[in-house]
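[09:14] KT: can someone run the structure on this one? pasting the chain below
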Amino acid sequence: MQNDEIDQQLIALLRENARRPVADLARRLGLARTTVQARLEKLETTGVITGYTLRTSQTARPPLQATVLISIEPRSGPEVLARLRSLPGVEIVHTTSGRFDLLAQVVAHTTSELDETIDRIGEARGVRSSESLIHLATKLDRAGH
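[09:31] RB: done, structure tokens below
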């Protein structure tokens, strides 16, 4: 399904603040409240909007973050993913193309906790190698995480 310019503007407003009242959205878009409500329902029904979420400030998140690039043995993906799921510091895992097979986003409250999580990743059966990148400062965050 193709979204028109109004749908894109509506989505942009919701990205800024998903709790914005429908009446406010309608006023900003120059549309009737019922029209905006119908568009929201259509975007939800068609799966364009799959939910509304809570965004926390940096102060509410664990202070340490890292990206771990992981190279795995052939056919070991399910086993490695099961291990990554079991580690509470691992928040997100992506498959990738190129030199590494997986990219894991890791958070921790202390350097020893971060070190422990990174060690557990490297020790997992099926992990050939890993490379860790500790995040120092956020310079741009369009997603607002």
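[09:33] KT: thanks! The first strand starts at residue 64 and ends at 72.
[09:34] RB: yep, looked fine to me
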